[in-house]
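Record type: monomer structure entry
Structure origin: computed from sequence
Chain ID: A
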Amino acid sequence: MGDQAGVAQEQGCTNIVSQQVCVEAVVTITPNVTPGDPMVACVGLPTVGTTCADLGFTPSTTIPGSCTTTFAQVLCVNMPLTFNADVQATPGQVGCGPAFNTPNCPV
């Protein structure tokens, strides 16, 4: 086709090339525990003339007294991983072929 409104149309050919690329992802999951604000509630009324041991509690061995209990929670982590690639094409070496003084490209 000819020029339209003084704009030349580009002509050429496009070929699709491909290359396999292996991509690894190293994923490290570090779980953590963040305590929230404690909620304290009284259980029943205070007792008179009794000790915690009298009520069936094991006396604490630390001073000041504290109680340590271990709670376990299983976590399941769903994590999407997107594998992609940036492609950059740069011109390579140029090979020169025969020259013709008339149009000689296939139509």
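Annotation 1: The mean pLDDT is 89.
Annotation 2: The radius of gyration is 39 Å.
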